[in-house]
Design goal:
two-stranded antiparallel sheet, mainly alpha
Length: 193
């Protein structure tokens, strides 16, 4: 009986060890090596480095709240906004009273900063990951007047910057047009006051 059990367990244990080595070590090492060889910038986190300092990642949003900056989507991560270690949505449904209160509060703050009119939805709702670094060109244009006014710029220059920074759909058909908030805010620093 014990001999039969050992006879059955031995190949199972060998398969477990072999598959663990293949799928747990060899495959991830191969994929990592290929990624770093073929796509070094993306594999390194798409970091934006300025004067030897990491200014942020093109893939993870940051908290911008200054009146002369473009504001991104709200982040659902906690305890701090855009915390990659706590990625995830709020899981509040569209009819949840807490979600409705959050959206109403954010919309009112935006109306106070920008005046009356329709507020772009992504400026009042968090993305599924809570880390989205992009807003739509419409959301950027919604903020153009405030940003130009606060920076003492001509609004047409800010609108031109939005048009230049707008990215189209991936491969021409995936996703929507978007503007990276980190990159456009860094571009603003280069505009003459």
């Amino acid at each position: 009986m014990l001999r039969d059990i050992l006879h059955t367990l031995r190949p199972a244990c060998l398969v477990l060890v072999a598959l663990s080595l293949i799928t747990g070590l060899a495959y991830p090492a191969l994929v990592t090596a290929l990624a770093h060889t073929l796509f070094p910038h993306q594999a390194g986190g798409s970091l934006l480095v300025d004067k030897g300092q990491v200014a942020g990642s093109r893939l993870i949003g940051q908290q911008f709240a200054g009146p002369g900056q473009f504001w991104g989507r709200p982040s659902a991560t906690s305890p701090q906004p855009y915390n990659a270690a706590a990625s995830g949505g709020s899981n509040l449904g569209p009819t949840n009273p807490a979600q409705l209160a959050n959206v109403a509060e954010r919309a009112e703050a935006l109306r106070q900063a920008h005046g009356d009119g329709p507020v772009p939805p992504e400026l009042v709702t968090a993305s599924a990951s809570g880390l989205d670094p992009h807003i739509s060109p419409a959301a950027a244009l919604y903020q153009a007047g405030r940003v130009a006014r606060e920076r003492g710029l001509d609004e047409s220059a800010v609108r031109q910057l939005i048009a230049q920074r707008a990215e189209g759909r991936q491969l021409g058909l995936l996703g929507e047009a978007r503007v990276n908030v980190l990159l456009i805010n860094r571009d603003l620093e280069g505009l003459a006051l």
